[in-house]
Amino acid sequence: MSNLAYLPGHEPDQVPEEQPRGPQLENGYVRISHEVMRALGRARLRGSEYPIVLFIIDETWGWHVKHKVLRTSYIAKGLGIPATSVSEAVAELLRRRVLYRVGDSQGPIGFNKNYDQWQSKSSASKRVKRANQESGMIHHNAEQLVHDNGEQFIHQNRESNKDRKDRKDINPLSDSSDEHVSNDLESLFNEFWQAGLPKDGKKPAKQKFIALLKKQSDPAAFTARLIDDIRTRLDAAVPGFAKLHPKTYLNQQRWEDELPERCPHVAIIEAWNTEMPAHIEKVSPEDWTPDSHGFQALANAWHNFKTKPRSSTGKPVFTQEPEGIEFYREVFRRLAAVDRIHREESARWCRLSWAVKQQETIKIFKGEIA
Q1: Most buried among 101, 177, 236, 258, by the most CB within 10 A?
Q2: How many structural domains comprise the chain?
Q3: Residue 3 falls within a domain, yes or no?
Q4: Contact 283/353 with Cβ under 8 angstroms?
Q5: What are phi and psi of 284, to 5 degrees?
Q6: Integer Cα distance of 262 and 78 in angstroms
Q7: Helix, strand or coil for residue 68?
Q8: pLDDT by residue (tens digit) across 13-66?
């Protein structure tokens, strides 16, 4: 149509191109008071803490909920920062009471709008660090710990035993400092011990764990990072991880390994329960654990579908979590449309643990289940 000619004065009006409108409130917004925003500005949040707080506010208040389950990997991907940084920052924000969590360490997380409750710095971190300094665990001036007559003394020079005994300005470490540090480290180890790994080899695991803590500037944040890492890997059903001994986890520094893709088991279970006929087995998320039949198969299939390109297209089946959930929902719809699924005897073999095996999922999607 570009070669049409028009009589002078009869040319069609030029329709101006629509200019991009930019972000619009109609596409979603977050209501937050000026008072809270000013409090955040005064909070002196460090590094990634401020964007994490804003991200959590957007994910909760932006959807008219007070709190929500938000995995470390999800926040990290949304902000484009390392998961380890997210884990450490969230742990600090929780201790400062800028954020709060409902239930255990895997529960929903939310923003605490009561800014008068915020702490300027983590009291737990300050307590551990101060106790470490008092006990000589942190040495700023190359101080040495020596043992004399059953008591520990701090000295800076290589003095003789006689000189040390004669000096009046050297104070023994107080028993209360040692006890304070011991209690803090013991408490952090107990949290780590309950993270979900098999409770085997407690004594060597404790020795290794405390040795690692003494090298950390923030032992509490480091502990929180390990706990979050363990639970993320258990949730993702990393092969063999559920049987890994705590000491092995520490010796191999498994928290430094790349985090696996998180499989949204609960959302996929909900899709199964919704799409399948009433006589087909319904699955409870509480019963669908890493030890249950099918959990590992689903986690592996999810990882492969999301990360490995198909030979036909050169692209993965899906790349985003919502796409993946919708993919499984479509798989279950197609399965529910198969005639023999509506027979009562199908309840004996048509189970979620079977349908989520990767090869079976592919067959269902392609219509090869008749």
Answers
A1: 236
A2: 4
A3: no
A4: no
A5: -95, 130
A6: 14
A7: strand
A8: 665 666 667 777 767 778 888 999 999 988 888 888 999 999 999 988 888 888
